[in-house]
Amino acid sequence: MDATTVIRDYLLLGLRFDRIEEGYVDSFTGDPALRRAVESEPTPDPAALAREAQRLLAEVPRVDGLDPARADYLAAHLKALACAGRKFAGEDVGFVEEVRDYFDVDIVKGDPDRYREAHRKLEEAVGGSGSLAGRMQAHRAAEEIPPARLEECIHAFSSALRDRVRVDYPLPAAETITYEVVTDKPWSGFNYYEGDYRSTVAVNADLKQQMSNLPRLVAHESYPGHHTEHCRKEAGLVEGQGQAEQTIFLVNTPQCLMAEGLADLALHAAIGPNWGSWAAEVYADLGLRFDGERAEAISAASVALADVRQDAALMLHDEHRDADEVVAFLQRWLLVNEERARQAMRFLSSPLWRAYTSTYVEGYRLLRGWLDDRPEGVTVTERFGRLLDEPLIPSSLRA
């Protein structure tokens, strides 16, 4: 089997998963005839899709004209699709195995001592008196962006980041983003990549967007996060090198862990550790006061609490704990109220998204370590550029 045939079969297989669970294909910018062909087929059988993924996985090592990096990329994604087919067919797959097959990583529970130390650092950063949870919730409430100003703030940060990012990571002249404010979603923000260097970014107003989080959110979804990665890969890998496998972006695959880790590091790569003072200047131009130094301290202390969300997923799906117990766990360690904890549970309980929390936790951990462990003389900008431009997977970074 030649490379063109196996990649076409991979694209058709991915598109068929969207017939089982709408939203499984996050974006598809390839040949529209392939999507039309799949839409005209009978509803696929998940077990048959799992078998097809295994068949293609066995073919990959024998494909002519496929370099090792592309072969590894396809193999990792076919392994993920084989697991997804088994799950959709009703097979009982353990949660740890599910995450391993989807995202090419192994997960374990976090260390409560690290969470206690993070709380100690937050005590210092937040200041004041009373319970830490109460003070954190009061701090978040004081940082809420007035709903009437949200779109204005989003566009201000998008413009400031775009100007900065286009210097380091040139983008096609035609690239553009449309922003929408939405409600009733389980996530805080979402990038819908439409192809031809266009994205729609939706921001969830239900979550009361906070001043310290908005710069990170815009960087994550737009510049130099998801939108920038999609544009750079469409221009370089698809248009430049003919890698058609990059025209499909599938939920619950290694490319998601790479993308979320990249996006969570986007503000760090674009602005650096002093992002708070930079954000304060953007807000000041809008007539809004923002304590950037305090925000930096709180953010740095909170990094160690990232594993709490993954622990909650393990409690729910691996240890089969009661939902109320998991909500209490989230409240305790993330210092959030019950409403916010139950919003997190919506994401953790979704059949499509339940394993996805690991993309943020393990993606950030893996990619931050790889960025920090760069060779002498290589800048963060250069190293981050590889994440934007190359079809890397977790195992290739570990190697």
Q: What descriptors fit this protein?
A:
2 domains; mainly alpha; 399 residues
Provide a concise account of the structure shown.
This protein has 399 residues and is mostly helical.
Overall description:
With 399 residues, the protein is mainly α. The chain has two domains: 3-93, no CATH class; 112-398, no CATH class. It has helices at residues 3-20, 32-39, 46-59, 68-88, 95-103, 112-126, 132-142, 150-168, 214-221, 226-240, 254-264, 266-270, 275-285, 292-302, 307-317, 323-334, 338-349, 357-372, 380-389, 394-398, and strands at 25-28, 176-182, 189-195, 198-204, 248-250. Strand 3 (189-195) and strand 4 form a beta hairpin. Helix 8 crosses helix 9. It is globular. The chain starts with a helix and ends with a helix.
- Largest sheet composition: 3 strands, mixed
What value does the average pLDDT take? 96
Number of domains: 2
Structural class per helix/strand content? mainly alpha
Helix content: 55-70%
Task: Describe the SSE topology.
Layout: H1 3-20, E1 25-28, H2 32-39, H3 46-59, H4 68-88, H5 95-103, H6 112-126, H7 132-142, H8 150-168, E2 176-182, E3 189-195, E4 198-204, H9 214-221, H10 226-240, E5 248-250, H11 254-264, H12 266-270, H13 275-285, H14 292-302, H15 307-317, H16 323-334, H17 338-349, H18 357-372, H19 380-389, H20 394-398
Parallel strand pairs: 2-4
Antiparallel strand pairs: 1-5, 3-4
Helix pairs in contact: 1-2, 1-3, 1-4, 3-4, 4-5, 6-7, 6-14, 8-9, 9-11, 11-18, 13-14, 15-16, 16-17
